[in-house]
Every structure is written in structure tokens, then in C-alpha cells.
Amino acid sequence: MTADLNLIAADPDLAPLWQAVHARLGAGHDPADIATVTVPDLPPQGMAALRSWLDTPAQRRRGRTSVPHTSRGVTVPLPALLAVLGLPADQLRNLVERAVGRSVVNRKKTRLQSAQLRLELWEYAATQLPHLPALLGRLKSAGLEDAAATEMRRLIDALASLIRELPCTRPRTLAKLAHDHAGDPHYFDPATLPGQRLVSAVAELAGRPEPTRPDHIRALLAEFGIIADRLSATVLLHQVRAIGNGPIDRRLNEAVTPVALHLLDLTRTPPRLAPQTLTVVENPSVLEAAMDRASTQPLACTSGQLRAVDHALLQLALDQGIRLRYAGDLDAAGIQIATTVRQTYGAELVAMDAAVAHTAGHTPSRVPLRALPAVCEPELADVLRMGGRAVYQEHDAVLGQLLDGEQEAANLRLPSDQDAPGR
């Protein structure tokens, strides 16, 4: 029957048999050690073919068979089948791969190799980062796919190389350190996994909990001479008055258009703000509307995020006793950010209530409302869900409450001691 092997491999009635053998080989079984194979879904035509090859005349006369059917499927004696086919055991794999259409992968061997690879990698990591047991535990708990082993080795090497230089004798940018120790200036960007692992390592070196706020992360890195990006992100200030004598104070007082301040501006030469009510908004378009209306209301814009520069401004205002208000979009992200600002800095939320949502509900945006966070006020949530659409700050109902006379009048009232939010 050797000449018929190609036909046997292509026979659809025998396909379940070869699939079952493929699975056994993939589980790590040697062909010569497989006594029987159970085939769950063998068609009657396939069973008849196997019995015609394997059953002896005596078995047929006695009503017996070498290919019995059980509750688990059809049991096929593999050595007897190979003998009938004239196929050596060491050639079974080739036949099975041809019949099934894919290579046999020894999963048992692969698992053993993977386990050995992980063991060697973690042993190597322990030698490179012996003083960071918490970080090592975190790396191990995250698991490791084989394809990620090379990247994990790169992370371990980059962390070990960089940490050996800490604290830096003179401040160096995070991008420069990433370039020198990982070959990529963006490798340790705070938003990346390597960047997060670097923060974990530095926090463990400092013996303190790992920070989560962007400004706290940058402050921690700065203690070890690492300067995270201080220039690319900016916060916009418009009509904000200052009473100090520094360069940022002069820029604010002399400006007739919004002033963009970097994190470096707010940390190296921070302004001394005059007593006023500072309304922080999410979108730059609100500042455009304020200029169009010739509003004198002090405004700041975070551009829809809470980055390190935004936290720095809010903390500066809080430390200086400035009354803070915050207004964001009435969508899932905007409400979550607003809640963070209120809880962290004591800001009063404005133009973010059910009344504004109801007024805007007749002409909302066309953007479907996503699931609202649990922190959303129930009354506001009900109105928004009824409309089914997000309400953005560009809506006239929001701009009117933010910039018209009622808010201008509110800004004239200076905060008293009892009104000022606590730290």
C-alpha cells in the first residue's frame, strides 16, 4: 500500500484520524511509542476502510474488530496501521503533516524550552538588578511570552546600565539617557512600559511609593538628576494677573493674547499670582471665544489633558490661595478629568451641571455619549443619557455660562480666608 500513501493522506474520510495523530505528536509523543489513537469524529466510510485493512478473517467471522468504537470515539491501533501501510514510524510525521496541512510543533518541548528561557532570563535579571527585588518581582508577575524575551533582555540591560549612573552628577534629559543606554531617545518616555519600569526602579531606590501623577513622577526623577520633558507641553493662560517681579510675571502682565507656559517656566521661575478667580478650561477654543468677546476673566487651558505642566499650574494656584474653577466637556473623559481636578485641588466645577446639559440638549453634538464614569452626578447623568449625545465646550450654552456677565461679576469677588481651598 506504500504507493497509495498520497491518496490516503488526501482522503477526507481519514482526515479526523490524521488530525488526532497530529495532536498526539504535537503533545510530544514519539511515533514509535503511540499504541493507539482515539478518533472522536471518524466517518463510517473511514471506519470501514480501517477495518478492511486491520481486521483479520477470523475476527470478522467472530464479529470482532481491531478498530472498536467506544464512547470516546474510534480506537485505532497505530503500530498495526503503520505495518499495513508499510510506513516506518519515523516517516509518520511527514505523512501527518501532508494530510493535515501544517507542521507538527512539539508543544511539550517548546514549553520546556520556554520555561528554561524564562529561568535563565530571571537569573540574569537578578544579577543585573540585585538591589531592586520589588521591580524584579513585578517583571516576573507580568509573565513573559517567548517573543518578548528579547525585549525583556533589552529592558533589563537598559535599566541596569542607566541605574548605575544614578544619581547623575549633572542633570541630564531623559531622552539623552534613553539614547545612551537603550539606543532610542523615546525608549523611557513616561507613557511607555520601559518608562514606567524606570519610575518603579527609581522609586524603589528612593525607598518611597511609586508616584502616579505626572508632576510627581517628574519630581522624583529630578531628584536623581533625570530631567523629563519640560518644554514640549504647555498650558495656556489668558488675562491672568501676576504681582511678582519674575520673567513669567512680566510676560503674563504684558500679554494681550494667551501665554503658553512650559513646565520649566512654572518650576524654575514660577509667577506669583494676584488674588483672582482662575477658571481652567479643557479646550483652547474657549480662549478664542474669550478674546472674541473681549472678556477680562482670568482663564487657563489644559488642552483636554492632565499632564505634568497642568498639575504644576493647578498646584501653584492652590499653594498661592487662588480660587479655582474648572470647566470641561460633558462627556466621559471630560467628567473624569473634572472630578480629578475637584478632588485634588478643590476646584469648583462650572458649566458642568444638569441645567447646562438640559439647555444644550435641544442642539447637542452628533457624537454619541459613551458610558459615563461612576463619579458623574446622577442628575447630570440622567440628562445626558436622555439626550444620548456629548455636550462640548464649544456649545453656546456652555460658552454663555462661562464667559458672559454672571461669570465676570463672580470674578470680581476676591476669595476670603474661609473660602480658599485647603491643600
Protein described:
The longest helix is centred in the first third of the chain and has 22 residues, at about 105-130. About 50% of the residues lie in helices and about 10% in strands. It contains 21 helices and eleven strands. A six-stranded mixed sheet has the order 7-6-9-8-10-11, sandwiched between helices. The protein has a three-stranded antiparallel sheet with strand order 1-3-2. It has a two-stranded parallel sheet with strand order 4-5. Helix 12 (about 215-225) packs across helix 16 and helix 18 packs across helix 20. The chain has helices at about 5-10, 15-25, 45-55, 55-60, 80-85, 90-100, 105-130, 135-140, 150-165, 175-180, 195-205, 215-225, 245-255, 265-270, 285-290, 310-320, 330-345, 355-360, 380-385, 395-405, 405-410, and strands spanning about 35-40, 70, 75, 170-175, 225, 235-240, 260, 275-280, 300, 325, 350. A hairpin with a 2-residue loop joins strand 2 and strand 3. It is of the alpha/beta class.
